[in-house]
Each structure stands twice: as structure tokens, then as C-alpha cells.
Amino acid sequence: MVAFSHLAVAASAIATVFAAPTANADPDPPDFELGPHNLARRQDYNQNYKTSGNVNFSPANNGYSVTFSGAGDFVVGKGWKTGTTRNITFDGSTTQTAGTVLVSVYGWTTNPLVEYYVQEYTSNGAGSAQGQKLGTVTCDGSVYDIWKHQQVNQPSIQGTSTFWQYISNRQTKRPGSGTVTTSCHFDAWKAAGLNLGSHNYQTLSTEGWGNAGGNSKYTITGA
Ligand SMILES: *[C@@H]1O[C@H](CO)[C@@H](O)[C@H](O)[C@H]1NC(C)=O
Fold first, then answer.
1. Which of 84, 118, 181, 186 to mutate to test the pocket of ligand 1 (most atoms within 8 A of CB)?
2. Distance from the alpha carbon of residue 4 to the mean position of ligand 1, in angstroms
3. SS3 of 2, please?
């Protein structure tokens, strides 16, 4: 092990160089830190994707707030570097004045590459839910519709790729507060043939598009 210590140092220096700019805002996060799917990072991996309008994202230690107007597309959020079957509790509010706005437990896995959503609030009832509806599941006292949708040559955490989205869409909007028992969704997805891979980051996120306007503000806890 000792023989490789210089390699470890080199690797960590490289990791520092390539860290997302926002990682520097919180030099020593415990377990809970800025999700990389904030506006800056999205622009990083989303080079063919036009983002327009005003999005003012303010991450905090235990949550975030964002105000937006005339927004073409954005995702901002806060969460954990590595997703798992944690229970995620959020408390706050979202107001939509224009466009489409959604609030989700949001994350990615690799092998297979999957972008997943547990949609707690959508301004239009659908949010990202499209493609094929596979059934319903009751989690945390509410019914969610389960969807799968294939993204073809779309931005991802591995660059432009073709991958599946797994979506649980809460039938009753919940923009204020609640707890998402992620294992309930992951188990239901698996039973529907939707397998996750190795967890990448996991957040509570606000997304908007279509000249979206409004604001969103949450504190987030999880175990
Ligand atoms: C998450 O919630 C479920 C269902 O309420 C509970 O059984 C489980 O113990 C919780 N897990 C944690 C880590 O709190």
C-alpha cells in the first residue's frame, strides 16, 4: 500500500483540479453536500442544450433556494454524492408562475445509466413523466404512477448518451413538506423490471423549462 501512496496523492490532486466549481463552496462537507446537478454543472455536461433566462440558485448547508424567470431549462438541487435507500425529508415551498416546474427526489445510477425521479410536485401533473406507464405504487401514504422513458442522445452524467428515466409521479401534488422513502420506489421499480445500477448522486431538486417562472425553497434531511 505504501508503495502506491504517491499515486494516491497524484489522483487526489487531479480530482481537485476537476472538481465542480461549486464543490469549493463547502470545503469539508460531512455526508450532505451540494449535488453536482446544479446549474453550473448542468452547463458543463449539457453543452448542446440551450439554457436561457434567469436562474438564481442559492445552496445552503441544509437545503437550497432558487428563483427563476423566463427559464429555458434548469435543474438545481441539493443532496448526497452517493445515493442509497435513504429516507429524504423536505420542508419548504414551490411557487410556479409560468412554464413547467417540478420538485423531485432526483438521482442517477451507472451500469446501467439511469436518471430517476420521484416527483413530489409538478405544476402540470406530468413533469418528466412520459413514455410508458407501468403501473402504480403506494409509498408514504400516496399513490404514484410509475413510468419509464428512454432518452436518446441526451445530456447525462456520462456525456451525451441514450439511457432510461425511471419516474414515480405522485398523483397528489406535495410542494410543501414530506418524506420520500426511496426504497419503496426502488423496490416497485425493480418489480416492474426497472433495475438501478451503482448509485451516483441523489438530491432533492427543482427543475423547470418552457420559460419557467417562480421560486422554490427547501430544507432537506435524510438518513
Ligand atoms: C425509512 O422509512 C422506513 C419506512 O417508514 C423505515 O422502515 C426505515 O427504518 C427508515 N429508514 C431509515 C434509515 O430511517
1. 181
2. 40
3. helix
CB of 87 shorter than 6 A to ligand 1: yes
Residues 6+ apart with CB under 8 A from 27: none
pLDDT 10s digits, 30-87: 333 444 443 333 322 222 233 678 888 888 878 889 999 999 888 888 888 888 999 9
Task: Answer yes or no: 207 catalytic.
Answer: yes
Neighbouring-strand partners of residue 178: 90
Which domains, from first to last, does the chain contain? 14-222 (2.60.120.180)
Report CA(84)–ligand 1 centroid distance (Å).
Answer: 12
State which residues of the chain have pLDDT below 50: 1-50
Which pLDDT score is estimated for 1? 27
Computed from CA positions of residues 173, 32, 8, 199, in that sequence, does the dihedral angle turn out positive or negative? negative
Question: Beta strand 32-33 with 161-170: parallel, antiparallel or unpaired?
Answer: unpaired
**What pTM was computed for the model?**
0.80
In whole angstroms, how far apart are CA 208 and each of 6, 25, 70, 172?
Answer: 45, 24, 10, 19
**Å from CA of 18 to ligand 1 middle:** 35
State the Cα–Cα distance between residues 77 and 106, nearest whole angstrom.
9
Active site residue 115: yes
Protein residue closest via CA to atom 7 of ligand 1:
181
